Amino acid sequence: FAVLALSIGIKIWQGLFYKKVSAKIDSQALVASAKDSFNDVYTTLAVLVSAFIEGVTGLRIDGYIGFLIAAYIIYSGLQLIREFINELMGMRPSQTEIDEMKNVLSKMETIVGYHDLLIHNYGPSQTFASVHIEIDDRWDLNKAHQTIDAIEAKFKEELDVNLVCHIDPVNLYDPTQQFVHQTIKKIIRSFDASLKVHDIRLVTHGEEPKILFDLV
């Protein structure tokens, strides 16, 4: 009994230690180790309780208690598997994370705008994102490249997010382009105000002009 009681105390300390460290470094592996330690505590405690009750009353309940402990261990194991699968396949980021990324992009005064922000979360320090950055089409490649590099570096430094940017040049000064932009947006809103349109382009190469855009 003394040895079993000592092992319970050690396992409780071990489980609490793993739990504390896992919270600091956000490690699912240590979360699993903590649960495993506590499962050992429950199993050993069940043996002690069963032995005590049998010694006092003569009732043999170790089989029933063992069944309940086994069911709990299976349940906790399935929970861990589900969490690991979520990290492996990718999880939806929290609304706070999304808002933080949008806030950084909205404060970038050198860009015209952004759209198609896609985020993939695969665990601690494993968040990847991509976004389309709208820039003045009069910029040269060097200026565009420097701007994109600055945005990607800012995401990594402030949010620990690995960002990849795609450049969308926007014509801000051609009256025809501006008329097309405003007309397309007005038509789309007349059908559904929740719809958003971007990447509006007036292609004049070829026999007839073409209007291209993305609708989401």
UniProtKB/TrEMBL annotation:
Pfam families: Cation_efflux (PF01545), ZT_dimer (PF16916). This is Cation diffusion facilitator family transporter. PANTHER family: MANGANESE EFFLUX SYSTEM PROTEIN MNES, MITOCHONDRIAL METAL TRANSPORTER 1-RELATED. It is found in: Membrane. SUPFAM superfamilies: Cation efflux protein cytoplasmic domain-like, Cation efflux protein transmembrane domain-like. The lineage of its organism: Bacteria, Bacillati, Bacillota, Bacilli, Lactobacillales. One of its GO terms (molecular function) is monoatomic cation transmembrane transporter activity. Keywords: Membrane, Transmembrane, Transmembrane helix, Transport. InterPro entries: Cation_efflux, Cation_efflux_CTD, Cation_efflux_CTD_sf, Cation_efflux_TM, Cation_efflux_TMD_sf, CDF_Transporter. Its main location: membrane. It is a multi-pass membrane protein. Belongs to the cation diffusion facilitator (CDF) transporter (TC 2.A.4) family. Residues 93-169 form the Cation efflux protein cytoplasmic domain. Residues 2-89 form the Cation efflux protein transmembrane domain. It comes from the Bacteria. GO terms for cellular component: membrane.
